[in-house]
Write a structure and sequence with these properties.
The protein is an alpha+beta fold and 564 residues long.
Length: 564
């Protein structure tokens, strides 16, 4: 008859004395222990002394010992597996390791992903030997010898294993168990069950939640990673979690695909340029899931706000070009207290009356696709008339800066500029703020790492000087010229440095401007730096083709002494 054992501090098993309880489950307990030399280790003891539990305990030690060459398995340094269950307690000894909760709780997302990759790499080697863990959860991952390692192989499946589980017995941990392991564990694909459990474990690691979630992962729910990492790029991880927790095991990735997806995310996370362009494409597919249209127009104010909020949700996609010049990152968009108006939050508030929001696409390369926000005429508030008559705060009447002391109530701009001086004369509250009201103009939003965004001269408000169709034609012409240049460019030129290549590409946006030093006439870049031979020759060809009209003089660094 089987009996249940509980252990206490000070108990001795062979050469090992229990010192501190570390944890345990239904069949075993884990303690720190000490040998006669005073060395500290971890001991796992079987507390359910019955044939089924003991068979699993033996399976666990067998797999660990026979696969000790695999990184990510904590070695067994001693064990006691009696041939007869006559009251002796089976146990095995391993080095002490750190829990993932202690190691990862305050770690950045990159470190947590690295931990899962290490576990997945160990799992990959086990899967290649047809060994499946079937009990993956946070408690069964420890940090040992500078690596995250898998432990507790009590439910392991491996070739020629003598099965002790009942037919279709539920196998696995509650919060990370694959659904098929609840219904049909005897015939389920254990490799895909491991993928499911690993994905659920990853979510728990990333969110620091004690429990997982039911069913398949979804970004349209409270378990969305964006709620935990609003400023991080998580889309590839989201997609991996969605596929890995699919109810159909056949639709889940293999372990190698799982690892590859996380490694791809790491590369994108480290490379802002690639990540930004990937996000720009993702945001378009999010708005247009079936196909990307050539032009889309939103005219309802609420729809405009909703669409712009999608752009704001990506802090790397929210850079807006202003109507006159310059640009800033858009933090948020919301309805204004003024009827028919919206607030653009650039950390300073700008109120506009939107006419329509357009999305323009070209098919050649999604980095050229852009959003254009056009406005209706917004009447001046009239609170700054005296200053405008005197020429102060005039700004050619494109916009005005005012003090909004309460919702929709405007006063001269200088009140909130020096609120302490006016608090006796005006009711200034926590709401009171200084805002900009834009009377007219259009804005554009391009991918932050697009050629257009990387070109300084595009900040001159040229989009606002053109109609909707004129600006689209202008971008289309730039694309066509760039495509033509790609065709003519030699292999050697294509291998030139990224910096020089970007300098060449700028000509198609900057209307073929060539910069010359105003002193000596040398061809330089827009900052006055000397160019390499290939780029200089390219600029000479531009001058021959278009004449001196494309030449712009700058202060060349080659003649810095003359400027001084």
């Amino acid at each position: 008859m089987s009996s249940r054992r509980l252990f206490k501090k000070g108990q001795k098993f062979k050469n090992w004395t229990l010192t501190r309880y570390l944890g345990g489950g239904g069949n075993g307990e884990v303690w720190s222990c000490q040998n006669s030399n005073g060395e500290n280790y971890a001991i796992k003891l079987l507390k359910k002394i019955k044939p089924k539990a003991y068979r699993r305990f033996i399976d666990e030690t067998t797999v660990i010992v026979n696969n000790s060459d695999i990184e990510g398995l904590i070695p067994i340094i001693d064990k006691h597996l009696p041939s007869q269950l006559n009251g002796e307690v089976p146990f095995y000894i391993m080095p002490l390791a750190e829990t993932t909760e202690n190691k990862l709780n305050q770690s950045p997302i990159e470190e947590k992903v690295n931990a899962i990759i290490q576990v997945a790499e160990t799992l990959s080697k086990l899967h290649s030997r047809k060994i499946y863990h079937r009990d993956i959860k946070p408690d069964n991952i420890l940090f040992y010898n500078s690596r995250y390692s898998l432990v507790d192989f009590g439910l392991v499946d491996y070739p020629d294993k003598k099965e002790v589980s009942l037919n279709n017995e539920e196998l696995g941990p509650k919060w990370t168990m694959a659904p098929e392991m609840k219904r049909e564990s005897s015939t389920a694909d254990a490799s895909k069950a491991d993928i499911y459990s690993l994905a659920k474990t990853q979510w728990i690691f990333l969110t620091n939640r004690k429990k997982g979630f039911d069913g398949q992962y979804s970004t349209e729910s409270i378990i969305d990673l964006k709620k935990f990492y609003p400023k991080s790029y998580t889309s590839p991880i989201d997609n991996l979690l969605i596929s890995s927790t699919d109810n159909d095991p056949k639709r889940r990735p293999s372990i190698s695909e799982f690892i590859g997806a996380l490694q791809d995310w790491k590369k994108l996370a480290a490379d802002f340029h690639k990540r930004n362009q990937q996000q720009w494409f993702e945001i378009q597919t999010k708005l247009f899931p079936t196909s990307i249209p050539q032009r889309v127009i939103w005219e309802d104010v609420k729809d405009i706000v909703k669409t712009l909020k999608v752009l704001c949700s990506y802090d790397s996609l929210n850079h807006v070009f202003f109507p006159r010049s310059g640009g800033l990152d858009l933090e948020d968009v919301r309805l204004s207290y003024e009827e028919g108006c919206i607030e653009l939050d650039f950390k300073i508030i700008e109120i506009i009356k939107p006419k329509r929001l357009l999305f323009e696409s070209f098919g050649y390369d999604h980095e050229w696709n852009y959003f254009r926000l056009e406005t209706d005429e917004l009447k001046p508030s009239g609170v700054n008339l005296q200053e405008e008559d005197e020429g102060e705060n005039k700004n050619q009447f494109d916009y005005e800066v005012v003090s909004e002391l309460s919702p929709g109530e405007y006063y001269p701009y200088y009140i909130m500029e020096d609120s302490s001086s006016y608090k006796e004369d005006y009711l200034i509250t926590d709401f009171s703020r200084q805002i900009t009201r834009r009377f007219r103009g259009s804005y554009v939003i391009f991918c932050k790492r697009s050629i257009y965004n990387l070109t300084p001269s595009t900040y001159d408000g040229r989009h606002n000087k053109m109609t909707t169709d004129e600006f689209r034609d202008y971008i289309q012409q730039s694309i066509n010229e760039l495509k033509e240049y790609y065709k003519k460019e030699s292999y050697t030129e294509k291998q030139s440095s990224e910096k020089n290549f970007k300098q060449k590409r700028k000509h198609y946006i900057e209307e073929d401007i060539v910069y010359r030093c105003g002193w000596c006439g040398n061809i330089v870049d827009f900052e006055g730096n000397e160019l390499d031979y290939q780029t200089r020759e390219y600029n000479i060809r531009i001058i021959k083709k278009f004449g001196q009209s494309v030449v712009k003089k700058v202060h060349g660094k080659c003649c810095k002494d003359k400027q001084d």
